[in-house]
Every structure is written in structure tokens, then in C-alpha cells.
Amino acid sequence: MSDALPPLREVIREFDLRAKKSFGQNFLLDLNLTRKIARVAGDLADSVVYEVGPGPGGLTRGLLAEGAKRVVAVEMDERCLPALAEVSRAYDGRLTVHQGDALDMDEPTLLAPQPGETLRIASNLPYNVGTMLLIKWLTLDEWKPWFASLTLMFQREVAERIVAKPGSKAYGRLSVLAQWRGKVRIAVNVPAAAFTPPPKVASAVIHYEPSEPLDATVKLKDLELVVERAFGQRRKMLRASLKSLPVNAGELLAKADIDETRRAEDVSVEEYVRLARTYAEMRDA
Fold this sequence. Notes:
Blueprint: H1 8-14, E1 27-28, H2 31-40, E2 47-52, H3 58-65, E3 70-75, H4 81-90, E4 95-99, H5 107-111, E5 118-124, H6 130-138, E6 149-155, H7 156-163, H8 173-179, E7 182-190, E8 195-196, E9 203-210, H9 220-232, H10 238-241, H11 249-255, H12 269-284
Parallel strand pairs: 2-3, 2-5, 3-4, 5-6
Antiparallel strand pairs: 1-8, 6-9, 7-9
């Protein structure tokens, strides 16, 4: 089904939207692919979808064509606004665009959901802020969060870090933050040739759904601290990497039933959660 809008290559030519490295831009032009990514996000009929960095509107058109009730987009590059205005007109005003920096946005206020609407995030994230935005959304104090799912494009290497399991080189802080209170998978692999201009690396789309935390008593700040210290010196044994915590590292590891000679990349998400709870108990004793 066509949306009667011109092909994206014509849109880019008409509005002179050459991708800028300063904005971390790489445009997806294959509307079959963008619709496939939109379908990963789930049933969009009652969804308000938040999109960061829509550019000329490739994924935006996919989301709208797949039935999103509304799309609210934040775009920093003012050159893209006229092209996105055409998309909004073609889809009966179901697209609203705000110019600004997504890192500064208060998303629930911006999205202004109505009763019965589900909030989702779906974006081909700008490479230069993608990880920072993900961490912003994963480190909300209140859980469950305001969004029902994240469907996000990253460089393949970053996507692999998000879904990585213990024992792999990709496993790290981002893996633990994503997996301790959510389920995440790589949903679509995207070759560099799918983009204009093609980046030097392949990309991948992850799909994340929040869930109950592994331990609801654990505070985010305690988990972040333990994980940061462990992976800050990931080649060292835990008894050394956790020595800078304000509790005795050997006693902490013994109480958490974790061998002090293990290294950060071999500790499971569940064990990090247990370490964080034990750390808080010792600190507050």
C-alpha cells in the first residue's frame, strides 16, 4: 500500500537533506524495511509512538502506514521540518513534530496521552546520542515506566552489548541495565547498504519490553554503583574491582555468595542484583 508521498530519495533531493555527521544522521530509504521495523513495535492501533530523529520521515511513514494512532517526533535539524510537515498532511495530522534536543524532553508531558492510549518509543536513533537516550529511558526511578516498549535502531555493536549474556566480551553495564527489569532481543539486522549515506558498520533493531524487576527492593542507584565499579576494572577479580566501595569487598562477596576471584563479565544479571541488595544492607547496617 502506497501513502501517495514521493519516494524518499526525491524528498531528500527536493529539500536538500544531505545527512549531516554533526546530527549523527543516516537515513533509511527503503519503506518496506521501515514498515517491517514498525511491525516489530507491535499493534499500533491505540499507540502514541514517540520517534527521535525522524529525518526525512522514512520510519515515520512506516509507523503511520502500519496504523499508529499518533506519532510524536522530536527533530533537531530544522531542514527536515518541511518534509515532515508533508508527511503530517498526508496522514491527516496524525504526526506532530517538535524541534529540539531529545535529551532535554519530558516525554510524558510532550506526548500528552489520552485515556486508553499506549505509549511506545520507536526510532532509528541518531548514532551520536543513541546510547545516552537508551540509558535515560532505562534508568527511570519509577518502574514500570511510562512506555510499553522500545523499538530502537543502533549500530550492531551497541545492540549486541544491550542483549549480551555473561561470559561474552560484549557483556557489560548496558547489558545489566537493560536486562534486570526488562526483556530485550535483537529483532532485525540492517546492513549498512540500507542507509544513505551508508555507515561503516551494520546496524540492528532491538525490541525491549519492561517487566517486573528481578528484585523490587533493589534501588537503581545501588545497582548502577556496583555494576560501574565491577566493569570499571573488568579484567580484575571482583575482590579488587569492588574494593573502592564503602564496604568490605570480601565480606560483600561472601554474603552475596559470589566467588571473589570471578571477573565482572562472568557475573549474571541476577547476581549483580543480589550484590546490589547485599551492598545496600551492609551500607545501611
